[in-house]
Amino acid sequence: MTTHRQSRNLSFDLDEVPLAPGEVAIVGAGPGDPGLLTLRALSLLQQADCLVFDRLVSREVLALAREGARRFYVGKAASHHSLPQEETNVLLVSLARQGKRVVRLKGGDPYIFGRGGEEAEHLIEHGIGFRVVPGITSASGCSTYSGFPLTHRDHAQSVTFVTGHAKADGELELDWGALAVPNHTVVFYMGLANAELISTELQRHGLPAAHPVALVERGTTPDQRHVLVTLGDMVEVIERESFRPPTLIVVGEVVRLADTLAPAMTRCDTTVTKSLEMGRRAL
């Protein structure tokens, strides 16, 4: 196991100011594979006195933290929060005021649907020093590990990341017309519960039922699986195959490239072998 002394050397090698007592680092843990963690994130993990982490942070990433660091789980799932966001904000301030070196660890990137901006604002309001470390967001990790890019000169000249999670009043208000355009990739985060609405609205605004879609569950982890479907059969496949959160919905012609690129990929591990095989069987 990496020692605290070794983490200090890593911090020095990165020309990084060590995490100070009473400081909070809001850190992106990436989409799950510990190999996708940034060096700066690893350095801070090995300095932290306290970890405040979400549901989507993998066990393998947590195992890289400094031995003896206290852990506070504040995970969120649909309609169930282990700790409401407001109380998470209070916890960060409380730990910092106790002089702890705090790492707030978030799946993916903290500033992409991670509410990291809200937490940073709260820390500023209470005079707490903080830093932010980006992470590989789920859209990038899941698409790459499923064998297709998000953009491609011939198929998609733009990409949009969209929250598929409805507001508290149950409404999912999106500019569907702007999303239902050709040569464009749309990635829906947290959209599984609204898959039927997504399918219906995109078709109503011009995309054909045969438009390709990728469903990627637990991307970049040993449990990853993905299938390539269409807008027309997406909901039926989700129900039949029992897809569960976290699942990304990727809409666009680029997902078809998985049929060509995925079989030719040379992998450094076997993390997603079964997912690639499943995706090809579903074509």
TrEMBL record:
Keywords: Cobalamin biosynthesis, Lyase, Methyltransferase, Multifunctional enzyme, Oxidoreductase, Porphyrin biosynthesis, S-adenosyl-L-methionine, Transferase. Pathway: Porphyrin-containing compound metabolism; siroheme biosynthesis; precorrin-2 from uroporphyrinogen III: step 1/1; Cofactor biosynthesis; adenosylcobalamin biosynthesis; precorrin-2 from uroporphyrinogen III: step 1/1. GO terms for biological process: cobalamin biosynthetic process; methylation; siroheme biosynthetic process. Pfam families: TP_methylase. InterPro entries: 4pyrrol_Mease (IPR000878), 4pyrrol_Methylase_sf (IPR035996), 4pyrrole_Mease_sub1 (IPR014777), 4pyrrole_Mease_sub2 (IPR014776), CobA/CysG_C (IPR006366), Siro_Cobalamin_biosynth (IPR050161), Uropor_MeTrfase_CS (IPR003043). SUPFAM superfamilies: Tetrapyrrole methylase (SSF53790). It is an enzyme of class 2 (transferase). Its EC number is 2.1.1.107. Residues 24-234 form the Tetrapyrrole methylase domain. Gene3D superfamilies: Cobalt-precorrin-4 Transmethylase, Domain 1, Methyltransferase, Cobalt-precorrin-4 Transmethylase, Domain 2. GO terms for molecular function: lyase activity; oxidoreductase activity; uroporphyrin-III C-methyltransferase activity. NCBIfam families: cobA_cysG_Cterm (TIGR01469), PRK06136.1 (NF004790). Belongs to the precorrin methyltransferase family. This is uroporphyrinogen-III C-methyltransferase. It comes from Billgrantia endophytica. The gene is cobA.
